[in-house]
Amino acid sequence: MKFIKDLLFFEIMATGQDPDKDNIIQLSAILLDRDNLLEKNYCNMYVRVSYLDSIMAQHAKMLHVDYDTIKRSPKIFDVAKKFKDRFGTGFLLATHNMNNVFFLRNAFKKAAVPFDYDVHIIDLWTLGYIYTLNYGLNKMPTFSTFADYFKLKQKRPFDAMEKVRLEAEIFRKIIKEV
Fold this sequence. Notes:
Layout: E1 6-14, E2 24-32, E3 39-46, H1 53-63, H2 67-71, H3 76-87, E4 91-95, H4 98-110, E5 121-123, H5 124-135, H6 143-149, H7 160-177
């Protein structure tokens, strides 16, 4: 199956679930070619939310990375700008849940970067739900459900880069079967 545009799958790790009060601490993305769904480009950025050592140590522990990685990380303003500079806007956004879109939109707003992406977004959860109905899976279409179903192993559950690559693989497998 060929798509009209390339697809940018992205994943966010945040300090909580509320895009209005919680903060992104990791943003990862892979750009998939519209013709063959192979990876064309990627980025993996950690985000420093605070200058307080205790907060940075807490986020490093949460992400299973060393403290210096978080301490050297840019703030969300720079991350949003780098994200847009690296990928531009000529693709479809894709993610496993719409909350990630709200987090990304808020990050762009904080950075005063226009969020001028295509309003059509590929939502892996919705696609997965339809897939489960058609293929008789009697479980909710969570990331874990599909990872198990397609026999994909997640080694680092708090790593957005690993998760976004697995989400892209789940997407490929669903598209291949449909």
